[in-house]
Amino acid sequence: MRIAQMLDTLNWGGAQKMQLFLVQSLLPLGIEVTVISLRQSPNSSVSAELEAAGAKVITFPFPRLFSPGSFWKLVQFLRREKFDLLQAYLTYSNIIGTLAGKLSGTPVIASLRNAGVDEKRYTSQRAAIETFVLRHLAKHVIANGYGVADFWQKRLGNLSIDVLVNSIDDISPLNEEERRALRIKLVGSSERILILSVGRLTYQKGFHDLLQAFHKIHERFPLAALIIAGEGSMYEELLSRIQKMQLQEHVFLLGVRDDVPKLLGAADIYVNSSYWEGTPVSVLEAMAAGLPIVATLVGETPHLLEAGAGILVSPGNPEVMANALFDLLGDSQKRHFLGLAALSRVRSSYNRMAWTQKLLTYYANVSPIAGTYLSRI
């Protein structure tokens, strides 16, 4: 079986992490995977990691949504390669991939990844085009969470949306010496309580709220430290806010990191402050690392943290977030048991084998050959 995967960009994010997870899951079964990016991503290691895992990676640069030259080259490529199916992720890929699939005779599965929109990037015209192609041209539509499916159902009417929630492997803990050394490197001391958040530095992720919450925390727990891993357009703005709050020795913007599992192993608490999400891979990673989690009640997160696997707070409310963190900062036993609950839940409900079986079952609805690979899992 030969499949193609299409993404808007190969800069690190949740969709890109799941793309690597997919490649690592399907290639051992004998399925060939080609990953198509619609933008150059020169500063990202995603391409190299996908290729190291065995995927073929190719870029068709689309400087704008309607780029006729790039589109025609993409259609010719799909006709020549004769993939059994193409799965598209994110808005540009859903539109371009579905149209190109229709013209090339390639069945397309569109993917929905967020239960919200960025008003700064949202255009009604682009949304209308995406809605049209999903309703009328895609062979199948998959959401990465039940909250995402509910959000999109209003736009897609009676169109059936299947749900395939993201998955994760266990994250190996650091030994005590490694943990101590990394904590010293990150915040100058191994004794500080370390709060971690991972995500793109964009409005969606609510980092202004997190900084405001941490400012309150610092007043009661002056040795606590916050590290934020990720890059994005709000870096300078967040750095300025940290300086104005005089938190330079307590809040650290790490930029993009390729060692997030180690950061999770070094941390004591994980926090997600987003205004909207799909199924946040970062929260799954924190669960897989056995961390206690405070997260906003958005997207799939309430389902992920069911059964006492984390603390949920309303988005856009720094005071509530600070209070939830106060409870954890002052109670090491509660942190321990919350972390164990998160790890237990991710192992039972979000493991790789179940995810791969469900993905191939969905693929079989579009290309029956996919069903023959289920016995190889």
Commentary on this structure:
- With 377 residues, this protein is of the alpha/beta class.
- The chain has two domains: 2-167 and 351-376, Glycogen Phosphorylase B (Rossmann fold, 3-Layer(aba) Sandwich); 176-349, Glycogen Phosphorylase B (Rossmann fold, 3-Layer(aba) Sandwich), CATH 3.40.50.
- It is 46% helix and 15% strand.
- The strands form two sheets. A seven-stranded parallel β-sheet has the order 3-2-1-4-5-6-7, sandwiched between helices.
- Helix 3 crosses helix 4, helix 8 packs across helix 13 (318-329) and helix 11 packs across helix 14 (332-349).
- The two termini are 15 Å apart.
Short descriptors:
377 residues, alpha/beta, Rossmann fold, 2 domains, seven-stranded parallel beta sheet, six-stranded parallel beta sheet, 15 helices, 13 strands, globular
Which spans of ≥5 residues are poorly predicted at pLDDT below 50?
none
Q: Give the beta-strand count.
A: 13
CATH second-level architecture of the largest domain:
3-Layer(aba) Sandwich
Radius of gyration: 21 Å
User: What's the helical proportion of residues?
Assistant: 40-55%
Coarse shape: globular
Helix and strand element order: EHEHEHEHEHEHEHEHEHEHEHEHEHHH
Strand order of the largest sheet: 3-2-1-4-5-6-7
Q: Let me know the average pLDDT.
A: 94
